Amino acid sequence: MSIRWNNNPNPRPVFSGQWIRFVKEKGLRAGDRIVFSRRQTEGDGVRYRIRAERKNIELLDPFHVEKKKRNSARELREKEEK
To answer: Are 34 and 50 in contact (CB under 8 A)?
Structure first.
C-alpha cells in the first residue's frame, strides 16, 4: 500500500494499493472495519497506520455457529467420498 498527497488546496493523503489483497490476507468480511490513524513524529514526519478490526459475528449470532458446524460436517463427508 502507498500514500500520496492529492493536489487540492487542502491536501489530504490518498491511500492506494492492493486493497483486495489486504482484505484477503487479513481474512476480513462484511461488517469488519479498517481503521486509519495518523501520528506526528519528530521533525516534520508523519506516520500512518492501517489496522483491521474483525467483527465477532459468532458471539452475536448463535445461528452462525450452528451453520458453521453443519458446513464443517458436510465438508468432512465430501472429503471422505473423494
So the answer is: yes
